[in-house]
Write a structure and sequence with these properties.
354 residues; alpha/beta; Aspartate Aminotransferase, domain 2; Aspartate Aminotransferase, domain 1; 2 domains; 3-stranded antiparallel β-sheet; 9 helices; 14 strands; 35% helix; globular; binds pyridoxal-5'-phosphate; aminotransferase; Pser_aminoTfrase
């Protein structure tokens, strides 16, 4: 029986995507060849790559606006480094809103001075810092739209005159935003788009070419752009499966349609967390994430009972990250509302037992 998969990442994908992807591993579109045994330079695969790149821009509403999409390797963690290598000349501003943000700062510091415009580390990152200034002479400002581990999400982004860079690994394609306010967006596929192994990078081309350092080819966005995201062998399976998910999303009605579903799931989840006296939300209410709901059980004595009930209900992946403890319900695009209903039922059943 299929489990209710609340895993934070790698995460749930739509069943039809899993089916199509697994079929393509055996035989890609009745070609008599497997997706993973054909040349990445074949027409079949070049078409897949181009479709994936085009769908990403189309869904984000960035077609014809000077943006290009790349599917790179090395995870979002490599983007921490690539952003700095390609864009940091003198100084950049970073918002420290969580563990991933802190890691991006650490990597950028290898190259130059970094100014932390604000941080919520003092409160174990349970809120999004606000009301900070971004110096207008910096090279760029970097933020994290959704803090996967702590369950906080930026609801608004600062207006700034310098390039705005955003790590959207865990909430890309989940909500409508004016994506053209960003100059560079990156997202590891395995949170809301596909299997691990590829990272989507969406770049406004005119931000590139402004640093004086030499950039190694594999780290250079311009090199990847000039080669159509095929400078070296791309992760074909991860790109194909991401393409299928993007196609699935487009057929559903795009981001605006999935956003409505995501809102329903989050509303149901948070109303249970707020109303059930056994549980306590971790993130500050105004900043809580629609993707990752973090909460704790007030009475540790109920832990075993709760976890047995979760198991019996077929709920997977609810354990919180070690730096927060408790539980984290990740409600990415492919998670059905029904799975949230099952979880909420278990939570309220625990209340009636306690
Ligand atoms: C998971 C995650 C990362 C790291 O992604 P990798 O692909 O494992 O390197 C970075 N940022 C955020 C917001 C994440 O959720």
């Amino acid at each position: 029986m299929k489990k209710h998969n609340f895993s934070a990442g790698p995460c749930i994908l739509p069943p039809e995507v899993l089916l199509k992807a697994s079929q393509a591993v055996v035989d890609l579109d009745n070609s008599g060849l497997s997706l993973i045994e054909i040349s990445h330079r074949s027409k079949a695969f070049v078409d897949i790559m181009e479709k994936a790149r085009a769908l990403a821009l189309e869904l984000l509403g960035l077609e014809g606006k000077g943006y290009k999409a790349l599917f790179l390797q090395g995870g979002a963690s490599t983007q921490f480094l690539m952003v700095a290598l390609n864009l940091l000349e003198k100084r950049a501003g970073y918002l420290n809103s969580g563990t991933w943000a802190a890691k991006s700062i650490k990597e950028a510091k290898i190259y130059d001075d970094i100014y932390e415009v604000a941080s919520s580390k003092d409160a174990n990152y349970n809120y999004i810092p606000k009301g900070y200034d971004i110096p207008s002479d910096y090279d760029y400002f970097h933020c994290t739209s959704n803090n996967t581990i702590f369950g906080t999400q930026m609801k608004a982004f600062p207006k700034c005159d310098i390039p705005l860079i955003c790590d959207m690994s865990s909430d890309i394609f989940s909500r409508t935003l004016d994506f053209s306010q960003f100059d560079l967006i990156y997202a590891g596929a395995q949170k809301n788009m596909g299997p691990a192994g590829t990272t989507l990078v969406v770049i406004k081309e005119d931000v590139l070419g402004k640093v004086s350092r030499k950039i190694p080819s594999m780290m250079d966005y311009k090199v990847h752009l000039s080669k159509g995201s095929m400078f070296n062998t791309p992760p074909v399976f991860a790109v194909y499966t991401s393409m299928l998910t993007l196609e699935w999303l487009k057929n559903l009605g795009g981001i605006a349609a999935i956003e409505k579903e995501n809102e329903k799931k989050a509303r149901l989840m948070y109303s249970e967390i707020d109303l059930n006296p056994l549980f306590k939300g971790f993130a500050t209410k105004e900043d809580r994430s629609e993707m990752n709901a973090t909460f704790t059980l007030e009475n540790e004595n109920l832990k075993e009972t709760f976890e047995t009930m979760l198991k019996e209900a077929g709920i997977n992946g609810l354990n919180g990250h070690r730096s927060v403890g408790g539980y984290r319900a990740s409600m990415y695009n492919a998670l059905p509302l029904d799975s949230v209903k099952v979880l909420v039922e278990v939570m309220s059943e625990l209340e009636s037992k306690a």
